């Protein structure tokens, strides 16, 4: 099955490919990885590229996309490119300049999707993680409903086709959905989601409001020290996943990715070598049985690899809620 044609309709009428290529990498390799792996991903059929200001490699991602447009592999309209508004730019007046900076880095006229990276505001400035003299993050106080209004204006200005959020719990989503004068609903909520954290309640909530759930860390995580709890079990070594993979003559990674697509979730896959990237795109040529799906559902244990412990004291910390 052709990955290019596998798309889901968003609530604003645009379409998002169900399989995306994630460009996050640890800082020491982020730029190199983007230049090496993003063009390769496009060559083999990925059409949805997920990036962010915070990944610090937008210039390289943009270069990769433009090189594949230049050599005739794709046209701009074939590529679905997502970027994200960082926490230091949540004040309404900073939203458009932040998006314009991302567009300049990517050297694109528009992104297909621009999302709020977290509902947590940090002190504005050049530093990604502004800290005080004790090494504590410096929080900012911003009503993210005002941030949302600034995002709506960016959509109206044609700088982004669609707007959404990331790492919001259902109460925070409700706040936007119930906002007086809401012009556009969020098209998506991008969250950590995998068989150990299957987000079934949040998924049901999002489906009821025509919001697409987008899964990151769908294969567990790359276990980046600052962010990830190293004591958590490794998802892809799970015996249930391995048994289902063996049955279908696939890898555990492909089973974990297909599980998401089959339940109506858009899934991001990140490979830091070409073999894995090539393998990840083979997610469409098999089907999981209802028994397989039920067995994978049963693996949920609410394990969050990216628990954002640095921001646990923030008044808008999203992960205290059940979903």
Description:
- β4 (48-50), α2 and β5 form a beta-alpha-beta unit.
- The chain has helices at residues 27-43, 58-70, 92-106, 144-156, 170-177, 200-208, 239-248, 252-262, 274-280, 290-297; strands spanning 7-9, 15-17, 19-22, 48-50, 80-85, 111-116, 160-166, 188-192, 212-216, 266-269.
- 34% of the residues lie in helices and 14% in strands.
- The model has no long low-confidence stretch (mean pLDDT 94).
- It has one domain (3-315): NADP-dependent oxidoreductase domain (TIM Barrel).
- α1 (27-43) runs parallel beside α2 and α2 (58-70) crosses α3.
- It has an 8-stranded parallel barrel, surrounded by 4 helices. Strands 1-2 form a two-stranded antiparallel sheet.
- With 323 residues, the protein is α/β, with parallel strands linked by helices.
- It is globular and about 55 Å long.
- One of its GO terms (molecular function) is oxidoreductase activity.
- Substrate binds at residue 117.
- Belongs to the aldo/keto reductase family.
- The active site is at residue 55.
- Residues 19-300 form the NADP-dependent oxidoreductase domain.
């Amino acid at each position: 099955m052709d990955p290019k044609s596998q798309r889901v309709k968003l609530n604003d009428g645009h379409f998002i490919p169900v399989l995306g290529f994630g460009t996050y990498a640890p800082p020491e390799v982020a730029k190199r990885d983007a230049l090496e792996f993003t063009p390769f991903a496009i060559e083999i059929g990925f059409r949805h590229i997920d990036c962010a200001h915070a990944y610090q490699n937008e210039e390289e991602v943009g270069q990769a996309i433009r090189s594949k447009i230049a050599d005739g592999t794709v046209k701009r309209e074939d590529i679905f490119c997502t970027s994200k508004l960082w926490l230091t730019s949540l004040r309404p007046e900073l939203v458009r300049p932040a998006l314009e900076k991302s567009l300049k880095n990517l050297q694109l006229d528009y992104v297909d999707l621009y999302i709020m990276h977290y509902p947590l505001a940090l002190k504005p400035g050049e530093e990604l993680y502004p800290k005080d003299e004790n090494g504590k993050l410096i929080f900012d106080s911003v009503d993210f409903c005002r941030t949302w209004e600034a995002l709506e204006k960016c959509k109206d200005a044609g700088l982004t086709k669609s707007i959404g959020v990331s790492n919001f719990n259902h109460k925070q989503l409700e706040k936007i959905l119930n906002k007086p004068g809401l012009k556009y609903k969020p098209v998506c909520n991008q969250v950590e989601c995998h068989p150990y954290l299957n987000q079934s309640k949040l998924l049901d909530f999002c489906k009821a409001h025509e919001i697409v759930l987008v899964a990151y860390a769908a294969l567990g995580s790359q276990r980046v020290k600052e962010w990830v709890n190293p004591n958590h079990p490794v998802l892809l070594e799970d015996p249930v996943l391995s048994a289902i993979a063996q049955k279908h003559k696939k890898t555990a990674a492909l089973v974990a990715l297909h599980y998401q697509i089959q339940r109506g979730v858009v899934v991001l896959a990140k490979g830091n070598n070409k073999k894995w990237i090539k393998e990840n795109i083979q997610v469409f040529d098999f089907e999981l049985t209802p028994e397989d799906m039920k067995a994978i559902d049963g693996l949920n244990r609410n394990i969050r690899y990216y628990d954002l412990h640095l921001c646990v004291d923030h008044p808008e910390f999203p992960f205290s809620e059940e979903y």
